[in-house]
């Protein structure tokens, strides 16, 4: 879909099957192919940012990383990590073309209402990660990522993960 010039993607993977790992692999691939340079990874909680930083450190060790917090910003980092509130005070100071890829972790939650302004400000490829997409009128994850038919770009559900022995049945 990237080769076909699509700009929004929704990956729905069951909890515990590696959404952040897939995002790190995608970033590494797109950087290696020189399709992207700068990435913003958004999460709604500090703990999720911390986990993502660790995953990127392990799986994309060559990409300089930084945590945007309290208005701090490292212009040399290729991958920036932030909570939505942490990015709110900074995003308008950056040009719309600053980031090439924005990853919204747990995209079914915080990307709506006031935090959507961050998402809309940047002219970048947008990747939503979630285990539980929503299709509410005011919180439609599928529509936000151009999956109007209610089908995500990629789906790896609980039953499939159990069958493949990545998860155990509850």
Would you give an account of this structure?
The chain is of the alpha/beta class and about 170 residues long. Strands 3-4-2-5-6-1-7 form a seven-stranded parallel β-sheet. Helix 1 packs across helix 2. It is globular and about 45 Å long.
Look at the structure and give the mean pLDDT.
89
Count of helix runs: 6
Task: List unreliable stretches of 5+ residues.
Answer: none
* H/E element sequence: EHEHEEHEHEHEH
For the largest sheet, list the strands in their spatial order: 3-4-2-5-6-1-7
Radius of gyration: 15 Å
Q: Alpha-carbon distance between the termini? A: 34 Å
Report the helical percentage: 25-40%
Strand content: 15-25%
Q: What's the count of strands?
A: 7
Write the layout of secondary structure elements.
Elements (H helix, E strand, L loop, with lengths): L7 E6 L5 H14 L6 E5 L2 H14 L5 E4 L10 E5 H5 L12 E5 L10 H6 L3 E6 L10 H4 L9 E3 L1 H6 L7
Helix pairs in contact: 1-2
Q: Could you write a compact summary of the structure shown?
A:
With 170 residues, the chain is α/β, with parallel strands linked by helices. It contains six helices and seven strands, in the order E-H-E-H-E-E-H-E-H-E-H-E-H.
Keywords, please?
170 residues; alpha/beta; seven-stranded parallel sheet; 20% strand
């Amino acid at each position: 879909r990237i080769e076909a010039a699509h700009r929004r993607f929704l990956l729905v993977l069951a909890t515990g099957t590696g959404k952040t790992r897939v995002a790190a692999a995608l970033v590494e691939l797109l950087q290696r192919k020189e399709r992207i340079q700068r990435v913003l990874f958004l999460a709604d909680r500090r703990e999720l940012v911390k986990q993502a930083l660790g995953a990127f450190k392990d799986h994309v060790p060559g990409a300089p990383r930084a945590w945007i917090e309290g208005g701090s910003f490292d212009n040399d980092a290729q991958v920036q990590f932030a909570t939505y509130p942490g990015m709110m005070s900074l995003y308008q100071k950056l040009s719309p073309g600053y980031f090439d890829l924005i990853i919204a972790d747990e995209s079914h939650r915080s990307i709506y209402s006031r935090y959507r302004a961050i998402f809309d400000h940047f002219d970048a490829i947008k990747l939503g990660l979630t285990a539980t997409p929503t299709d509410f009128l005011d919180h439609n994850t599928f529509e936000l990522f151009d999956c109007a038919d209610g089908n995500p770009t990629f789906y790896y559900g609980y039953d499939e993960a159990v069958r493949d022995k990545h998860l155990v049945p509850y």
